[in-house]
Design goal:
The protein is mainly alpha-helical. 64% of the residues lie in helices and 3% in strands. Helix 1 (2-44) packs across helix 6 (146-162) and helix 5 (130-139) crosses helix 6. The radius of gyration is 22 Å and the shape is elongated.
């Protein structure tokens, strides 16, 4: 009798666990469908903010309740061609050719970072494409975890499937962080050069692109030897870049 009761108990628990897993799967599917709807929405509608922008505003308001972000949307044709070329040269040289993810670049970045960690630390590399960065900035956050990275990859393929390369670059240039509380090409141009996104010259565009990996730092340290060297390199490279 005890054995029979034990067997029934195991069956019941198996059914409970199965039902729980099915519920989690259904919620996951619903969430992904919702994210896909958002991707389709932003393929045609301009965002008023992004996940990273909202996160940064919350951080700033911890010390200043009245803090506001510097942000102004500007359409693709009103952004300097030089800035488009410089950003692609800096962040994603194969932007117009890949399908959203460059696995070889991710592998090389991981191997390089492992070597840096073994040596006691140092400057790390990222292997993210512009599309991956857009997925993170627009929908997710700047936090680091395997779950967030996995969702970033799913969103990346959604974005590449739904949006044109021109739209992806337009969105990226408008939501990228360029300093403490500074988001988008228009705000960056005004913050650093007192001009519009369309009025940026080649050297100005190269410097802004060079700042992208660590914008808050370079907002406060605008004349480092690395930034000057990187700007010169991008000024040369950007002439060879194709833009959508």
């Amino acid at each position: 009798m005890a054995t029979r009761n034990s067997t029934i108990g195991r069956i019941r628990w198996g059914r409970v666990i199965g039902a729980g897993l099915m519920a989690v799967l259904c919620l996951l599917i619903i969430y992904q469908l919702w994210m896909f709807c958002l991707v389709v929405w932003y393929a045609y509608r301009d965002p008023g903010s992004s996940a990273v922008m909202r996160q940064e505003l919350s951080r700033l308001r911890e010390t200043n309740p009245h803090a506001e972000l510097q942000y102004q949307w500007v359409p693709y044709d009103k952004i300097s061609t030089s800035l488009k070329r410089a950003v692609i040269a800096s962040e994603d040289a194969n932007f117009t050719e890949h399908d959203g993810v460059e696995w070889d670049a991710i592998r090389k970045a991981w191997e390089y970072n492992q070597r840096q960690a073994e040596r006691g630390g140092g400057k790390m590399r990222g292997g993210s494409t512009i599309t991956q960065q857009l997925a993170k900035n627009l929908f997710l956050s700047s936090s680091r975890s395997y779950v967030r990275k996995g969702e970033e990859l799913v969103l990346t393929y959604m974005i590449e499937h739904v949006m044109s390369k021109e739209r992806i670059l337009e969105l990226y240039l408008n939501v990228a962080e360029w300093g403490e509380g500074v988001f988008g090409a228009e705000a960056a141009a005004r913050h650093y050069y007192k001009t519009s996104a369309g009025g940026l010259g080649a050297s100005q565009s190269a410097r802004l692109a060079a700042m992208l990996p660590n914008p808050r730092y370079y907002d406060k340290h605008r004349n480092t030897s690395y930034l000057n060297s990187r700007t010169a390199t991008l000024t040369r490279r950007m002439r060879l870049v194709d833009i959508p």
